[in-house]
Write a structure and sequence with these properties.
- By secondary structure, the protein is α/β, with parallel strands linked by helices.
- The protein has twelve helices and ten strands.
- The strands form two sheets. An eight-stranded parallel sheet has the order 4-1-10-9-8-7-6-5. Strands 2-3 form a two-stranded antiparallel ribbon.
- It is globular, with a radius of gyration of 18 Å.
């Protein structure tokens, strides 16, 4: 169920208020263009600046609009274990198919602290949990051994790996086996990630190149088909300038600008994020034109 091109959904704003109409049309755009799942209230959805009501609303709307056609993996992490439990229980009650739980940021827990954090969430819900390991944002890195301990629990099913270390795919595959779902958290290395045993990507780029990202993932997962692997490599090369352009400045400012050019969302972000510079705008435009999206 949790594989292929999964989009880390942006949260559209209008005058600093969530734009529900754009958000709904965005979800249907993804369903129409082959996206295999949506992640509301993640990093790209600006979860740090969504209040609790907004956080819950983006998940509820995603569940309602997806109507079981594609899975909803709700962002429900926090650096407060109690808050993460509450958000996770709400997401499950709302009908989310799975949870994406980021490693607790700022607190700098030990590996045992990480284990107990996820165990308490696991013990309070009955839907699958994807660990989100992103040391560049949360400072701490969950070890493969800690991940293996967590995989023994009933609801922990996989990881969104944004460590930027492709060797981790091999280590996690060796330790947990192919049943442990490995999803890339980095568009630029998604091809190699899948070739090493990954099964998909929770993608930023898919916000603005949904069809291409979906086609790329489908082709890259056909490991024994030379023709499709060639197609995957070809699409990957085409997408690379866009992957790079969308991370010149802090995500999701560049992808929101790209979305505004395609009339999918405004380019509004919430402070402390700001809109991208003119220099970045030119790079984003160039990448979109290269893909004939603009």
């Amino acid at each position: 169920m949790l594989k292929g091109s999964i989009v880390a959904l942006i949260t559209p704003f209008k005058n600093n208020v969530m734009d529900e109409d754009k958000y709904i049309s965005l979800i249907h755009h993804h369903i129409k263009n082959g996206t295999k799942g949506v992640v509301p209230a993640g990093t790209t959805g600006e979860s740090p600046t969504l209040n609790h009501d907004e956080h819950k609303k983006v998940i509820e709307i995603a569940v309602r609009e997806c109507k079981g056609k594609i899975p909803v993996i709700a962002g429900a992490g926090s650096n407060s274990t109690e808050e993460a439990v509450q958000l996770s229980r709400h997401a499950e009650k709302s009908g989310a198919d799975a949870l994406l739980i980021v490693t607790p940021y700022y607190n700098k827990p030990t590996q045992e602290g990480l284990y107990q954090h996820y165990k308490l969430i696991n013990d309070n819900v009955g839907i699958p949990i994807i660990i989100y390991n992103i040391p560049s944002r949360s400072v701490i890195d969950m070890s493969v051994d800690t991940m293996a301990r967590l995989f023994e629990l009933k609801n922990i099913v996989g990881v969104k790996d944004a460590t930027a270390d492709l060797n981790r795919v091999d280590q996690q595959l060796k330790k947990m086996g192919p049943e442990f779902i490995q999803l890339s958290g980095e568009d630029g290395t998604a091809l190699e990630f899948n070739m090493r045993g990954g099964v998909g990507c929770i993608s930023v780029t898919a916000n603005v190149a949904a069809k291409l990202c979906s086609e790329f993932q489908e082709a890259s997962l056909a490991k024994n088909n030379n023709s499709l692997m060639s197609k995957a490599k070809e699409i990957n090369e085409k997408l690379m300038p866009l992957h790079k352009a969308l991370f010149i400045e802090s995500n999701p400012s560049p992808v929101k600008y790209a979305s505004s050019l395609l009339n999918l969302s405004s380019d509004e972000v919430r402070l402390p994020l700001v809109k991208v510079t003119e220099k970045t705008k030119k790079e984003v435009q160039k990448a979109l034109k290269f893909l004939n999206l603009l």
